[in-house]
Amino acid sequence: MVSTADASEGRFIKSVAVSPPPSGAKQLCRQYSWACSTKASVSMSYQQEMRIIQRVNRKVNATTRSVTDRSQYRTAERWALPTSRGGDCEDFALLKKRDLIRAGVDPSKLLIATVLDTKRNSHAVLVYRSAAGDLILDNLTNQIKPWSATRYLFLRMQNPSRPSSWVGVYASS
């Protein structure tokens, strides 16, 4: 379980500029209106939300196979929910976001971010914006970490105040 103290240093990813969406996310809000929703949901305690977030993160990671867009769609980049064959990193993030919203987590706390991973490959993760700070749900691990502990280079994410647009963050964890 992540404690409040764990996320307190450099708690939130700071946006520095307006940014165009990633190429695969240009139709995201049209295709999945819930992915850009700001409609507040029932209020839960941090502990309740964390239990749900840990459960959904583990379940999606365990039940979804990793498959590239090139293999599945014969295109370099397509953001979609995983198919029966699986999905790539942004597909995992979308599925987690959808399942968390369905479980009652406030959609305004769930933001998709693009990063360069520790090997500096393009990657996407789901950011859970908790009161304690930004925590990362990643298909590469079941461990939910503060963004600053991922060792990723954060490039852009959905705008926290308007998730239909994107912001550049250019922050190193």
Provide a descriptive summary of the structure in words.
The structure is a single chain. The chain is of the alpha+beta class. 24% of the residues lie in helices and 28% in strands. It has a 7-stranded antiparallel sheet with strand order 1-7-6-2-3-4-5, with helices on one face. Helix 2 packs across helix 4. The longest helix is centred in the first third of the chain and has 18 residues, at 46-63. 38% of the residues are buried. The model is unreliable at 1-8 (pLDDT under 50).
Q: What percent of the residues sit in helical stretches (DSSP H or I)? A: 10-25%
Counting DSSP E segments of at least 2 residues, the number of strands comes to: 7
Helical stretch count?
4
Distance between the termini: 20 Å
Question: Rough shape?
Answer: globular
* Secondary-structure class: alpha+beta
**Strand percent estimate:** 25-35%
Largest sheet: 7 strands, antiparallel
Low-confidence segments:
1-8
Query: Taking all residues together, what is the mean pLDDT?
Result: 91
Give the strand line-up of the largest sheet: 1-7-6-2-3-4-5
Radius of gyration: 15 Å
Secondary-structure element sequence? EHHHHEEEEEE
Detail the topology: elements first, then pairings:
Elements: E1 17-19, H1 28-31, H2 46-63, H3 69-73, H4 89-102, E2 110-116, E3 122-130, E4 133-138, E5 141-146, E6 153-159, E7 162-172
Antiparallel strand pairs: 1-7, 2-3, 2-6, 3-4, 4-5, 6-7
